[in-house]
Write a structure and sequence with these properties.
50% of the residues lie in helices and 16% in strands. By secondary structure, it is an alpha/beta fold. It has one domain: NAD(P)-binding Rossmann-like Domain (Rossmann fold), CATH 3.40.50.720.
């Protein structure tokens, strides 16, 4: 039974991925800061016909590098094969706000969680995969890693950085069976938008932003997105495939069309139209 680590496993895409992967017969280690929700997930999984050692919850903070070795040693001691086959890098959040409204501290914190912590934990797990020259590194990125949008520039920056480093790592592992796979979803129905609204409320309380109307129009009225289960199914597919794609685009037909057309739209036209639609 191959072992898979899922970070950010307490809700949203991470939780859906845990459920889907245990259903596929993997041993899954669900990691999150919110241990109570991981335990609740254990109760939810009890309705499935699982083996006793198929799901392990573990408290984990992606920004606490000093705890990575301890967490990983605990995982290995419970791993059925004493190694890790798959790593699903899902932990992350959105730091909303126009560039002039966010603080540099918030920008650093966004990168610490969405990028630096992810890279450091991947570096911790990678030697285990290298021992067998086999594994799957699934980076949950975003369509915002391919096209930047106003009001979520900090988040887009972290996902663009993730795309770049994934490409580099993919080439560095070209002669192994360790596959680096990016999952790029559009709008997904997750708890992340509740956090966005709370953060926007803080911005509005601290200063009168010239983007107040845009915040209310765009970020406080997020269109309904795809189910997290759809993304989880793709993650499962990528892990199981012997020849996975480098990137899986998941989104509505409008989102996919916008991505396809972007290379053919002049920059000036694209930027002006997106700005008018979101900011005016």
């Amino acid at each position: 039974m191959k072992s898979i680590i899922v970070t950010g496993a307490s809700s949203g895409i991470g939780k859906a991925a845990v459920i889907r992967l245990v259903q596929s017969g993997y041993q899954v280690f669900g990691l999150s800061r919110r241990y109570d929700q991981l335990l609740a997930l254990s109760s939810e999984l009890s309705s499935y016909n699982l083996k006793d050692d198929q799901y392990f919850p573990a408290i984990f903070d992606i920004t606490r590098y000093d705890k990575f070795e301890e967490v990983l040693n605990n995982i290995l001691s419970n791993s059925s094969e004493k190694t890790i086959f798959g790593l699903v890098n899902n932990a992350g959040y959105v730091e909303p706000g126009a560039i002039e409204d966010i603080t540099i501290e918030n920008l650093r914190a966004q990168f610490e969680t969405n990028f630096f912590g992810l890279v450091e934990f991947t570096k911790e797990v990678l030697p285990l995969m290298m021992q067998r020259k086999e594994g799957r590194i699934i980076n949950v990125s975003s369509l915002s890693g391919l096209i930047s949008l106003p009001l979520i520039g900090a988040y887009s920056a972290t996902k663009h950085a993730l795309e770049a480093i994934s490409d580099a790592l993919r080439m560095e592992l070209w002669n192994t069976n360790i596959k680096v796979i990016n999952i790029n979803p559009g709008v997904v129905e997750t708890d992340i938008y509740r956090v966005i609204r709370l953060k926007l409320a803080i911005i509005e309380k601290e200063k009168k932003s010239r983007f107040s109307n845009a915040y209310n129009k765009y970020l406080n009225n997020i269109p309904s997105g795809l189910s997290a289960k759809i993304v989880a199914n793709v993650i499962d597919q990528a892990i199981r495939s012997s020849t996975p794609k480098h990137r899986y685009i998941i989104g509505s037909s409008k989102e996919k069309l916008a991505l396809r057309l972007r290379p053919f739209i002049p920059n000036k036209l694209f930027y002006s139209q997106v700005a008018k639609r979101i900011l005016s």
